[in-house]
# Entry
Amino acid sequence: MRAAVLHEIGQDKLEVLDDVEAVGFGPGKVRLRVRATGLCHSDVSAMSGVLPQPAPFIPGHEGAGEVVDIGDGVTGLTAGDRVLVCWLPACGACPSCRRGQTQLCLAGFMNAGTPNFKRPGGDVFGFAGTGTFTEEVVVDAGCAVPIPDDVPYEIAALIGCGVTTGLGAAINTAQVEAGSSVAVIGCGGVGISTIQGARVQGAAQIVAVDPVASRREAALRFGATEAVSPDELAGAKQRITAGEGFDYVFEVVGKSATARTAYENTRRGGTLCVVGAGAMDDNFQVNMFELFFDEKRILPSMYGGGDVLRSYERAIALWRAGRIDLESMITHRVRLDGINDALDQMRTGESLRTCIEL
# Structure
């Protein structure tokens, strides 16, 4: 079958090959035919080495498709079911799951160390234990979440990661209050979803911050009340909050420099929500006095900060009701052969989300 493979960490191009085989099918597993997958910035971060991932590997974790076959012991799924890919399934038994923090379950991460593809030259890993830049993938049954018939594959794919992450940061983690002021730093697919979450929550002012003009323009269409470049943020803070700072600031880039900017633009007693996934050697620093004196809440948000199955259902309900716009987030569509063009468009900020159709 065909798949897009990264041979070594640090390479910026994928090679589309037709000699890849999905492996590992057996009890508790399902085989999926991928129909659509989104290109998420985490895929690029794994390619560059910012996020840890063994290589060679197939990127992609934001996917949707149909069940081809089910292994022994799998219940609730049958061949032909339409599903989205959950790259962080909950085991239901670990301490995090028992506390109701299923987004912190580590079972899915354990799968990332086991190859789920092979080529004549050896094993190939799937990013985050999935790897959806391919025609078929074998995953744990918990990774295959049934979707209603009225949800297109490309919409379901977005809900599988970026939409759930962004909406959840605003709704679950930060719990944005109606009438509040919000700034979102980084307006790619996850940032746009965060903006939509803040709008759903009733924020009065939502300032989108991004260096790319096309992304600032897009942010306004998705609910931002104002969009500024990074060097204009200080002026917006003064104008909107009289210099006090925003009630909520979301960092959706994944770098300590932008997290520090977010902290400085959060009001005393306000909330900094860190959504971006960054490198292990990139340290965010605050001094002990400001940490105590300013009483700013620093809240990381992992995969939307809540039960992902409930978050999927909520996203679908909001989409059906017209409260969030998911179709317009897909700015580019390519076939698998166009994956490297899609990567370039993401790196330059030209695209919000690219749908790869398989």
The mean pLDDT is 96. The first strand starts at residue 3 and ends at 5. The longest helix spans residues 189-201. Residues 42 and 60 are 9 Å apart (CA to CA).
